Structure formats: C-alpha cells, structure tokens
Amino acid sequence: MSTFDKVADIISETCDIPRDTITQDSHAINDLEIDSLDFLDIAFAIDKAFGIKLPLEQWTQEVNDGKATTDQYFVLKNLSARIDELVAAKGA
Amino acid sequence: MRLEYFQLVTRFTGLEADKRRIRSVCEVPLKSTVFEGHFPGYPLMPGVMLIECMAQTCGWLVSGVTGFVGLPVLAGVKDAKIRAAVFPGDTLEFEAWIVHEGSGYTIGEAKGTSKGQPICNAQLTYRIVPYPSPEFRGKLREWAAQVQFPLEEFAH
Asked: Taking the domain B3-149, which CATH number applies?
C-alpha cells in the first residue's frame, strides 16, 4: 500500500470522510475541511502508523512566517512525500 | 481538592523511573457548594470532575515531560468511562501515562480508582500552547510545590 493510500485511509477513518472523495490533490484543510483539532488525531495516527513525528510546529511556523505555503504540507501528495522523507531520515 | 477552584489534585504520590507515568491522590471534600446542587439531598461527585481529575493528573505529567515549555490545554477526551459513583469524603487514586508525544500535542491516558476499584478512565489529548506570560509559568511552578509535583525530576 502506498503512503498516500495509508494516509487517505487514516483521514477517511478519523474524520469520517468517504474514501473515494480523497485524492492526491486534496488539500486537507481547504478541500476536506479538516480543522486543526481533527488534524491532531490524524497526526497521531500517522505518527503511529509510520513511526515518525510529523513536525507540525515547524510547518506551522514556516507557514506563519511566509516561508512555506499550506499546499506544501497539506495537499495530500505533498504530505505523503514529506512522510516518505521522514521515514527515510529515520532509517538513515 | 478545591472543587470550586477546579484544583482537583490533592497531591502527587509517585513517578515511574522513566518519568512517563505518574500517580496522584484526589481527596473529595466532605462539603462543597457543588454538592448542594449535584444533587440536593444526594451529594454525588459529577462525572465531568472525575474526567477533570484525570486531565489534571495527566496534564501535570505532560508539563513535566515537555519541559514546562507551554501549557497543556485539554483538547480531546476519548473513550471516557465513569464506572462507579464517588461521594464526599472519598479518597481517589489516579494514574496517568504518556501514550505519544507529538509535535505541539501530546496524547495520554489515565484511570482512577477508589478503594482499589476502578471508577473512571479516558484517553486525553493536549495541545501545548505558549504560556500567557513568564509570570504564569512561575505561578505554575509554585502550584507544583503545593501539590507535591516532582518538579526536580523534570529539570531540563
């Protein structure tokens, strides 16, 4: 199962969103309307599933500082890529 | 325990060596205005206050584990169960532990017992938010001494 499929399944189960409406280009906040509290549940599930720690504080700071856009972290194909990077870094 | 002030932990009584599990005692007072309304003629500890006992016990632990960098604000309560009635004068024992330390949030679990019998349990989610002021952090550390929280064990 791909990282995206795992993430999409987590989002679907955690937020009760139909799985078939979640795509690689879905924006977790803007398209799927996941709020920050629900995203904590998703982050917990992702952390557990992949054995990583999503750097949410760092991402939030970068967005607030204008150094990154929410698309970079919350469009699901990008989120999946970030997860793959964190998993790779853990194994390095 | 000072019910009207929402200060529910009487004292902390133990910390595991890995510092990720803590125990507290919450002594329910014999008299409180809370019991005048809940219920007239039948004083019963409100279930939400048992949840708060768990949340405060675990919240102090989260503060310690995260190095008192911010205030753990209760953001979620899952699978909460109130298993038995609690009355004025009861002595309650709570145990809380860290399940996951995320980025800006922490998940814990807690349970309460009275006379060895389970009374409640829940999973708790905390957001770690900045202290409103440096003075607030200082007051929290003063409060830690009052409830015998083992602050020195979490020295960073």
From this structure: 3.10.129.10
